[in-house]
Recover the amino acids of this structure.
């Protein structure tokens, strides 16, 4: 009998595992099951080009139907797996539809759900999230009727939606509970720049905003009441306050978890050697071999980790080594991040913040860790290349903005 | 509908039909043409959809923006005068018959 691999979760990582299995010549059965009504599609444009109307639904799809047929990849949509187990006869997953799926090996690419707002009024009509295509469709459906948009959360998703709405002429207020924007992703230098940049374009940004409750009228949200007494009017409240990993199936399999997140090793293997996991639902060893574990909610990680997971499923042992990178498009500002800056002890700022084109390099003990680049693709690419090669860009030389970074790369295999 | 032909690093040729306005990257990725990675999905953020455009079509393929220009400088494969990021080339009638060679490293 042919070996069967079941992939639960039809996002970027799930699609990539299936695709990579075929690229590597895997001859067994491959089935992807997703709970959404759509074949695998790209999420990043939902809060950017799709919302702005620059990209349609068809353009969001990763692959066309023909590809899945040609590559003999089963794609099941609209079925949420509710139970999974390894029994005496092998693996068995059961969907909410009642359908069951047998497998020999399993890939969990279950992703994450948006963290739900937990204040009074959070269930009012007009309180929306942004994670799935249906979320984006809902916001688009109501788009024309929105005058006042309140965004709860000053992370990538919230700020991207805010920028699209601001450009469309809406009154936009961003309420951030913390003391700076995108605090998990960038340093204070970049956070401060983005606050000013959004304000300059007409968006109101409140930091340290403590939401008391949401105010409504006949079941529909009309405003956000802050603890300091301010009432911010809202036709729509878009909540972007982070995500929680989908670990419930991993729990059923008694896999090793950390705070509800699936623990994997550098081969994307869980604590059960017949189960791999990749993407937003996992915590993994630092991908550049530094100490500790990280969570990486990004396209790059979903793709690169999925490739490793596919190899592991086939018995090929290639550890995951990749330079993490991220991007966020907000208004005319292209933020590109390479590397992980956590633990930095020195920064170098290049370029001109007043001209909306600059970069911040992060160092620890003189070694380059990461870059945040705003509209500065050449600095970004130079750092990505240096990190990929295990090379350095000495901080004192980098401080001279007139010298291209790519001429300063030293050491490594470059 | 316009057609586009991809030449993979191993010499394989694939000809596909495009919707007007689709990017050369998008058509390749959707059909599983190997060698075009396009991790960022067309946001001009990753330089993993690098192609060499056939000379006859280089003008019709349009101008290279400053952003694309900088990205191409950092691409993994050698940059040539006919280098483009395929996510930035939109198909149209003038590009019918377009041929692109996929850069060997992305």
């Amino acid at each position: 009998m042919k070996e069967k691999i079941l992939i639960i979760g039809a996002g970027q990582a799930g699609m990539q595992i299936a695709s990579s299995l075929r690229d590597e010549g895997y001859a067994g059965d491959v089935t992807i099951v997703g709970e959404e009504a759509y074949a695998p599609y790209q999420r990043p444009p939902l809060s950017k080009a799709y919302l702005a109307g620059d990209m349609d639904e068809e353009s969001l799809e990763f692959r066309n139907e023909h590809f899945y047929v040609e590559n003999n990849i089963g794609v099941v949509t609209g079925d949420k797996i509710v139970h999974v187990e390894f029994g005496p006869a092998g693996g068995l997953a059961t969907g909410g539809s009642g359908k069951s799926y047998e497998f020999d090996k399993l890939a969990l690419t279950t992703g994450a759900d948006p963290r739900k707002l937990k204040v009074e009024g959070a269930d009012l009509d007009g309180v929306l999230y942004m994670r799935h295509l249906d979320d984006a469709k809902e916001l688009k459906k109501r788009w024309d009727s929105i005058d006042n948009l309140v965004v709860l959360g000053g992370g990538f998703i919230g700020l991207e939606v805010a920028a699209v709405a601001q450009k469309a002429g809406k009154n936009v207020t961003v309420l951030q509970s913390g003391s700076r924007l995108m605090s998990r992703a960038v340093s204070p230098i970049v956070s401060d720049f983005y606050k000013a940049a959004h304000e300059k374009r007409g968006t109101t940004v409140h930091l340290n905003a403590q939401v008391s409750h949401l105010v409504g009228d006949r079941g529909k949200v009309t405003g956000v009441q802050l603890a300091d007494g301010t009432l911010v009017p809202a036709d729509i409240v878009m909540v972007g306050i982070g995500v929680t990993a989908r670990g419930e199936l991993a729990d059923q399999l008694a896999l090793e978890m950390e705070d509800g997140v699936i623990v994997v090793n550098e081969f994307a293997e869980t604590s059960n050697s017949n189960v791999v996991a990749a993407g937003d639902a996992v915590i993994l060893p630092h991908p550049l071999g530094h100490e500790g574990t990280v969570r990486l909610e990004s396209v790059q990680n979903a793709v690169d980790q999925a490739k490793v997971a596919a190899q592991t499923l086939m018995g090929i042992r290639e550890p995951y080594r990749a330079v993490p990178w991220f991007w966020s498009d907000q208004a005319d500002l292209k933020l590109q991040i390479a590397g992980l800056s956590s633990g930095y002890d020195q920064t170098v700022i290049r370029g001109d913040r007043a001209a909306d084109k600059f970069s911040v390099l992060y160092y620890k003990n003189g070694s380059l860790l990461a870059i945040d680049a705003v509209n500065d693709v050449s600095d970004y690419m130079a750092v990505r290349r240096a990190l990929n090669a295990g090379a350095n860009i000495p901080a004192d030389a980098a401080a001279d903005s007139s010298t291209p970074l790519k001429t300063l790369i030293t050491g490594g295999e470059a | 509908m316009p057609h586009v032909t991809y030449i993979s690093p191993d010499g394989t040729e694939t000809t596909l039909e495009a919707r007007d306005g689709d990017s050369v990257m998008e058509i390749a990725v959707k059909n599983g043409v190997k060698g075009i990675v396009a991790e960022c999905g067309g946001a001009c953020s990753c330089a993993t959809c690098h192609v060499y455009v056939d000379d006859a079509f280089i003008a019709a393929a349009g101008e290279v923006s400053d952003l694309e220009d900088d990205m191409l400088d950092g691409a993994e494969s050698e940059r040539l005068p006919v280098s483009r990021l395929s996510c930035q080339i939109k198909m149209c009638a003038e590009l019918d018959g377009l041929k692109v060679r996929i850069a060997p490293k992305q």
Observations:
- The interface with chain A takes residues 19, 22, 26, 29-32, 34, 39-43, 45-47, 67, 70-71, 73-74 of chain B (CB under 8 Å).
- The domain at 3-102 of chain B is CATH 3.10.20.30 (Ubiquitin-like (UB roll)).
- Chain B is about 15% helix and 20% strand.
- The helical segments of chain B are 24-30, 66-73.
